[in-house]
Specification:
Strand content: 5-15%
Helix content: 40-55%
Number of strands: 20
Strand order of the largest sheet: 8-13-12-11-10-9-14-19-20
Structural class: alpha/beta
Radius of gyration: 28 Å
Shape: globular
Distance between the termini: 77 Å
Length: 630
């Protein structure tokens, strides 16, 4: 063990990687070369430019983003030219991914990286899953991820390079979706959940039916383009599996005389048009606490309540109703919730149908599904794919419940703009690249991650044209079902005895806490308004103004203390404002004539919103208490 190697491993933050390297023996030893500077040859490929290794890395470095909230991911260490340049010129987080231990071990014996690796902002990984996990934990709402690589690594890993880069992008995108949810939807979903509480107390939690279908087969039906390819086979085998369907696929099934056992709907907006004019009286509905109240009120056989541990509003209801959420997940997509329910009910074999997660042959959704009026076409003039409605009016009517056609069309156009701004390319089962929306792309990562946990369940994907889902066996529906026997569909024993008084006590406590928070918000709102007016009249940064700003920030910090269990409803209903104010405050390094009015404005806006929202939530809780009490 040479001195350079000892210094490098002594500062490694990953103990497992340190042990690997200490005990490592070469599989193929890289060859040190001198071609216009030190270089390394591995399996006949030079890791750096033969003309000038340093200039090559400088050119890559110059193209990188170098913002305060950037995360630089360097795919491949090589001899460290690019890594050391980035470490010198960037104070942002730097994550090095070197999948080849031959190269990593060799470089650690040749180049002293101890100064760089000892920095708090620099980490090195040999395992992609560890990198993805670390990236997910450290990505914030305004983080930008910058992926840098030497051309040689694209060549050495040409079979896996693009796929691994996509996984990195998807992990990053998944975190941003979560932030987007908190900023744009958490308030609405929490309000919906609170208003739903009287109805929720009449519904049966899925928990009651854990493992009731142990050893049986389930089919989860989604509305992807390949659903149409599987309809006849699905009809043929519908008595040999328990069928879960998402709302958008129900119409297709009913039109083809296929009766699902469970209908899954989690949307917080009113999407009852998906099931309009369909007889649901013999179908069990599975919903979340935050699912739109009109969906909860559908005339169905039974309503089951799925409680996702990763959805804050669902977790709140589970807490006050003393229900477990362990192992229950939604991940923002109803098909994932359906899969998760099937897992919790004990099925040993779960088959996905129509789960394409990509646009195939121009189709966005299956024929006869709720949203079958969309096509994905390549626009040669723009040189990119775009989603277009076959009939805008018909599409608008299918997705919107607004009273006027003008409002429905406007909403449809907004939806199309969002879809087209987030088109993404993903790897298909046959290795081709397919267009999809960024939301679907992140769902792919969720399905793959979940599959890794389900080692004792046979998972099958029958979409032989859609996105590749690692962990799922790719089989036709015929091959997946041909040996199955008829299943005895169970008549579920519905009903659940909630401790109503305990629930009411919890709601009353939330209401009392919000009332105390409102007192603070009122006081701070008045202070922020006076400070704002006074500073505009006399923009002087004196001790008095700084003390007032500090007072407002201290109260903001106390209100949002993550260790306080009595402010969950407050946090959920003010998450967007908290994130916005946090962005303002963290951007200010020093209070001066430019930054002070920005801080004051941000604080005033924060407390203004609190003084509007908190009374609204208190009123909702009061109404819930009255309705539950009868």
């Amino acid at each position: 063990m040479n001195k350079v190697f000892e210094r490098n491993i002594s500062v490694l933050k990953d103990n497992q990687l340190r042990e690997k390297l200490i005990n490592y023996e070469y599989i193929t030893k890289p060859i040190l070369a001198t071609t216009n500077g030190y270089n390394v040859q591995y399996n006949g490929i030079y890791l750096h430019s033969e003309e000038n290794p340093l200039v090559e890395s400088q050119q890559i470095c110059q193209k990188s983003l170098n913002e305060n909230k950037s995360i630089h991911i360097i795919y491949g260490l090589g001899l460290g030219y690019l890594f050391q340049l980035m470490a010198k010129h960037s104070n942002s987080m730097i994550l090095v991914y070197e999948p080849n231990l031959d190269i990593l071990y060799n470089s650690f014996t040749l180049v002293d990286f101890s100064q760089e690796l000892s920095k708090d902002n620099i980490y090195i990984f040999d395992d992609l899953d560890k990198l993805l996990n670390y990236l997910s934990l450290n990505t914030k709402q305004n983080t930008t991820v910058d992926i840098l690589a030497l051309p040689s690594y694209r060549e050495i890993y040409k079979e896996t390079f693009d796929e691994e880069v996509k996984k990195i992008e998807l992990a990053y995108g998944s975190v941003l979706l979560d932030y987007g949810y908190k900023k744009t939807r958490l308030y609405g979903s929490t309000v919906t959940m609170l208003k739903n509480i009287p109805q929720l107390l009449k519904e049966t939690p899925v928990n009651k039916f854990e493992n009731i279908y142990s050893g049986k087969t389930a089919i989860v039906v989604s509305a992807g383009p390949t659903l149409g390819d599987n309809i006849e086979t699905l009809k043929k085998y519908q008595d040999k599996a328990v069928i879960f369907t998402v709302g958008t696929a129900l119409k297709t099934l009913v039109e083809n005389n296929i009766k699902p056992d469970f209908l899954c709907m989690i949307e917080s907006f009113d999407c009852t048009k998906q099931v309009k004019d369909i007889d649901l009286s013999d179908i069990n509905l599975i919903v979340e606490p935050y699912t739109n109240e009109n969906i909860h009120s559908l005339d169905v056989k039974n309503v089951l309540l799925h409680l996702s541990s990763n959805m804050p509003s669902s977790q709140y209801f589970a807490d006050i109703a003393e229900l477990s959420t362990e192992g229950y997940l939604a991940q923002g997509t109803v098909s994932y919730m359906a899969l998760n329910t099937a897992v919790k009910m004990g099925f040993s074999k779960i088959i996905l149908v129509g789960q394409d997660l990509a646009y195939i042959d121009g189709q966005c959704y299956s024929k006869d599904s709720a949203y079958d009026g969309l096509s994905c076409k390549f626009n040669s003039e723009l040189n990119k794919y775009e989603i277009v409605p076959n009939d805008l009016i018909k599409y608008a009517d299918s997705i919107c419940s607004y009273k006027t056609q003008e409002d429905r069309v406007a909403a449809a156009k907004r939806r199309l703009t969002i879809l087209n701004s987030s088109l993404y390319m993903v790897k298909s089962i046959d290795g081709k690249m397919l267009p999809t929306e960024s939301g679907y792309a992140s769902f792919i990562a969720h399905f793959i991650s979940y599959a890794k946990q389900l080692t004792d369940i046979k998972l099958i994907n029958t979409s032989l044209k859609g996105a590749k889902l690692d962990g799922f066996e790719d089989l036709s529906l015929e091959d997946a079902m041909k040996d199955e026997k008829i299943i005895n569909k169970l008549d579920l024993d519905m009903g659940y005895d909630y401790d109503i008084q305990s629930v009411l006590d919890s709601i009353k406590l939330s209401k009392q806490n919000l009332e105390s928070f409102l007192e603070i918000a009122n006081e701070c709102g008045k202070l922020a308004s006076r400070l704002n007016m006074d500073y505009k009249r006399n923009p002087v940064l004196d001790k008095d103004n700084l003390l007032k700003i500090r007072k407002l920030i201290e109260e903001y910090t106390k209100l949002n203390d993550n260790n306080r269990k009595d402010n969950l409803i407050f946090k959920y209903t003010t998450a967007e404002e908290e994130m916005n104010l946090n962005d303002v405050l963290t951007s200010i390094k020093k209070y001066d004539e430019k930054t002070t009015p920005v801080a004051i404005s941000g604080l005033k806006k924060y407390y203004d919103v609190l003084n509007k929202r908190i009374p609204n939530i208190i009123k909702i809780l009061s109404d819930v208490i009255c309705e539950v009490n009868g």
